[in-house]
Amino acid sequence: MKRRIGILTSGGDCPGLNAAIRGVARAAYEMFDAEIVGIHDGYRGLIEGDCSEMKRSQFSGILTIGGTILGTSRTPFRDMRKIGDDQVDKVAAMKKTYKAQKLDCLVTLGGNGTHKTANLLAKEGLNVIGLPKTIDNDLYGTDFTFGFHTANDIATGIIDRIHSTAASHGRCMVIEIMGNKAGWLTLYSGVAGGADVILIPEIPYNINKVAEVVKRRAESNKGFTIIAIAEGAMDREEAKLKKKDREAKRAASHFSASAYLAQQLQEAVGVEARSVVPGHIQRGGTPCAYDRILSTEFGVHAAELIRDEIYGVSVALKGNQVHHNLLSEIAGVPKPVPVDHQMIVTAKNIGISFGD
Ligand code: F6P
């Protein structure tokens, strides 16, 4: 049995992409007569026909390397059906590349946007398999995406380092964790890092409640406060605004979520509050052991699906079992943190405030 597989990584990168690519390739070479075409920079490469057949040796030595050897780009799903100034019909162009490369299937590694386009291509008749990656862990249908646990380790390490300097100076430190729409990373790293306050987009915060915690701690023998805030967190007043207006307000003030909160707290409590934005550090470097394993399992399952000619699906983890969901059922479905999630209950039960 021979299979010619196209593979691409799309959207924001994360640790574990190369481990997953390696998993697909190694299992495919083991299981059947595989040819693998690497598509460069995500859907851009598929649209422009920018791809090349890869050698088996190219999948060696990449398990521990961060980022993606294929390159990535953000090609928004909402633009896929639009004809731009270049007059290119992107969907037709992607189908053309798939055909010209004589692909039997396409494996797309990505987050929500990537999965929406994967589903579109599946509906257009291509054989597509998705693999769920993102440090945000916000893909419906899988307990975890790969990249999340590494980012969680990094973010936790950052909170740990902030802890000691916060304690020395008796300051309020506001650490901004990645995650615009979902607070998974902030929630997990906040709990792991022993934050006093965790603020996530799913629970708009009451500034008075946050100020109360900071004041109480400032007056106690602790003196300092650690706040983990998601980049997409908002206060209750902001939550009343339309998304467009909220973003415009933030942009006009040049304030990130953490800088905005630090200023609010300085005004409300009169303490010294500093904001820290680790940004893309959270997405860089070598994947942790958990992500190496998850990526490998996901990649191998994709190869099994190719062997069995099961397409139009995305690989997922459900209760420690690797399985797959129909792309049509999960593509574009968000996975915010449920406000009654066990981890929130746990955090509240040890006295962590969510500003609610
Ligand atoms: O989707 C992952 C993510 O890291 C988000 O947490 C963050 O909001 C966004 O990507 C940042 O995107 P970019 O790398 O394009 O600035």
Structure summarized in a few sentences:
The protein has 356 residues and is an alpha/beta fold.
- Sum up the overall morphology in one term: elongated
Give the N-to-C terminal Cα separation. Answer: 58 Å
CATH class bucket of the largest domain: Alpha Beta
Structural class: alpha/beta
What's the tally of helices?
13
Overall number of structural domains: 2
The largest sheet is: 7 strands, mixed
Strand-and-helix sequence, N→C? EHEHEHEHEHEHEHEHHHEHEEHH
CATH architecture descriptor text of the largest domain: 3-Layer(aba) Sandwich
Radius of gyration: 22 Å
**Hey, roughly how much beta strand do the residues contain?**
15-25%
Strand order of the largest sheet: 3-2-1-4-5-10-11
Bound heterogens, unique: 6-O-phosphono-beta-D-fructofuranose
Count of strand segments: 11
CATH topology of the largest domain: Rossmann fold
Low-confidence stretches: none
Helix content range of the residues, please?
40-55%
- Can you give the mean pLDDT? 97
Could you characterize what this model shows?
This protein is α/β, with parallel strands linked by helices. The protein folds into 2 domains: 2-146 and 287-330, Rossmann fold; 151-283, Phosphofructokinase domain (Rossmann fold, 3-Layer(aba) Sandwich). 41% of the residues lie in helices and 17% in strands. The protein contains 13 helices and 11 strands. It has a 7-stranded mixed beta sheet with strand order 3-2-1-4-5-10-11, with helices on both faces. It has a 4-stranded parallel beta sheet with strand order 7-8-6-9. Helix 1 runs parallel beside helix 11 (289-307), helix 5 packs across helix 6 and helix 7 (207-219) crosses helix 10. The longest helix is centred in the middle third of the chain and has 22 residues, at 148-169. The mean pLDDT is 97. 6-O-phosphono-beta-D-fructofuranose is lined by residues 12, 111, 134-136, 178-180, 231, 283.
